[in-house]
Amino acid sequence: MLAATPLPGTDVVEVVVDGGFGGGAVRDAARVVDQVVREHGSVRLLGVVRRLGLVTGLGALRELASSPLLGAVRRAALVTDKGFLADGATRGAAERGLEVRVFPPGQRDAALDWLQQEGASGAGPLG
Fold it and tell me: Any long-range contacts for 114-120 (C-beta under 8 Å, 24+ apart)?
C-alpha cells in the first residue's frame, strides 16, 4: 500500500509505504502532492516506509521521478530502517539540491518536527 495524505493546515504530505503498490497508487499520490503545491506553492514530504512489497507499475514511478512536481519539494524527511532507501534518498537529494534527512523507525514525530522547522539542515541519524 502507498498512501499520500496532506496534513491539514500545512504544506506537508505524508507518504506511507506499507507493502506492495501499483501505478494507480503512485498517480493518486502525485495528485495529492499536486493539490498541495497548487494551494501552498511548494510541498514538504514526510515519507514513512513501514515495510516493502511487490511494486507494479514501474512506469508510473519513472514518471514521478521525472515529474516537475519534484521541483516544488522544499524539504523531505524519510522514516525507514532500509539503508538502501536512505542511501538512495540522500544521493538523489544531493543531485537535485534538495534537503533530506533520514530518521529511524519510531521517530516519525521527530521527522515531522524537523520537516516543519524553517532553515533546518543537517543529516539525520541514518543519513
Answer: 114/77, 115/12, 115/44, 115/46, 115/75, 115/76, 115/77, 116/10, 116/12, 116/44, 120/75
Pick the CATH number of 2-116 from 3.30.750.24, 3.30.70.2470, 3.40.50.720, 3.30.70.1270: 3.30.750.24
pLDDT band at 126 (very low <50, low <70, confident <90, very high): very low
| pLDDT tens by residue, 29-47 | 989 999 999 999 999 999 9
